[in-house]
Each structure stands twice: as C-alpha cells, then as structure tokens.
# Entry
Amino acid sequence: MAKEEIEYYFQNDFHHIKQQLKDAYAPLDPDADTRMLEGLRELFGLWRREVRFTNYDRVLLYIRLKADVDSESTLSDCQPGSTKLRLFQNVPEADLEMLFPNIRIGMRLLDKLMIGVPALVSGGLVMTTKMGATVLLLGSLLSFCLGTSSEPVELDKAALIALAASIAALAGYLWKQYSNFRNRKLKYTQALTEHLYFKLLDSNAGAIYRILDNAEESECKESLLAYYFLLVSDRPMTATELDAAVES
# Structure
C-alpha cells in the first residue's frame, strides 16, 4: 500500500472520529453560540438596564517576540524570537487591551477616590484623636532644638508611652491603607485572570487547527445551504440572488 493511501485511510478514519466527538459534545459546548444578551444590574439587582457595545466573536492575537526580550518584561520567560498565537472568543471592544500579555493593572479615578477619600478622613481622625498630644509634644521638642523656643521640653515616662502609642496607631493606620490598596489590586488581577481563562479558546498550533476546522465547517454549511436553495427554487439563480436568498 502506498504512503498516500495509508495517510488517506487514517485521515478519513480520524476525521470520522472527530466528527462523532464534536456531535456528542455539541449539546454541552458553551462556545456553540457566542452571541448573548448582556445587561447591567443596578440598585442592588432590582433594576436591569440593557447596553449596546461592539463585541467580537473571535479574536486572534499574533505576537512576534524580539530577539532581545527585556529581562524586566513580563515576556522574559518566553523564548526570544518565537511567535505566539492566542485565539479568544466573545471579547468586547473595550477589553481588547486585556488580551495583551504585558498588560499592567491600572486603577480608575473612581477606585482612587474610593481609597483616597476614606484614607484622608480616617487619617485626619487619627491625627486629631490619637496623635494630637504627641504632635504637640514633637512640635515643642523640635522648636526647642531649633532654638525658636526657649522653654525646655520634659520627656517623662508618660510622654514616652504616649509617643509609642501614637507611633503604633500611625503604623496600624498605614498598614490598613496599604492592605486596602493591595486587596483592590488583587481583585482586579483576579478579574483579569478569570477574563482570560474563560475567553481563551486555543494557543499556538492549536489556534491554527481550530481556525482551519472552523473554516472547513463554514464552507460545508455554505455549500449545503446553497444546494438546498437551488434545489427548492423554481428558476435558476445567480450567485448574488442565491446569497440574498440565503441571508434573508
């Protein structure tokens, strides 16, 4: 048996198996139809508002790495000079930049206000309530050291305890604000990870195979539709008329 005959036999055999697997998985496939209705829930879920936006069913990301990848880059663990392919599904136009491998998390103005305004308010309360006496004490000590005040400052045990308590309160306040910032950043990082996980269809060679497979299916569907409409038509049809009939 010739080599071409052997290849032809196994290609047909595995193509038949592939089609059976696709038919069996079709009722369970969440990617069968990427078109869906999206809405925003407001007022604690009591009100739903429909929005319109541009959405891409498929996005192919082509990445060609330079031969000298920067060691500080997020792509430093990739092989220099290599080519990366990523195929995504159901991507809103506003989220296209999230697909890039070297994307950096940035906070919106609203997020900065949600962190900064409470931080300023609580910081003012800490300064006036828990550190008021300590601030006066430090101011008097600094004035005496600079020579602007001739009145000496007595640092007794009670003053040292108050100073230590104020420093501890300040440290606790700074740690809380840092934790708030870190938690919000982790929240956005997690959202980005989930976004990429559920929208990624395939990578590298797998992306090429999927695109070819989808192209084959599309050509078969178009041919079957064209054959059906020509079969039921009572007159010959041009290519333009046939396309219009199928689209309608």
Remarks:
- The helical segments are 3-25, 109-130, 132-146, 157-199, 205-232, 239-247.
- The chain is about 55% helix and 15% strand.
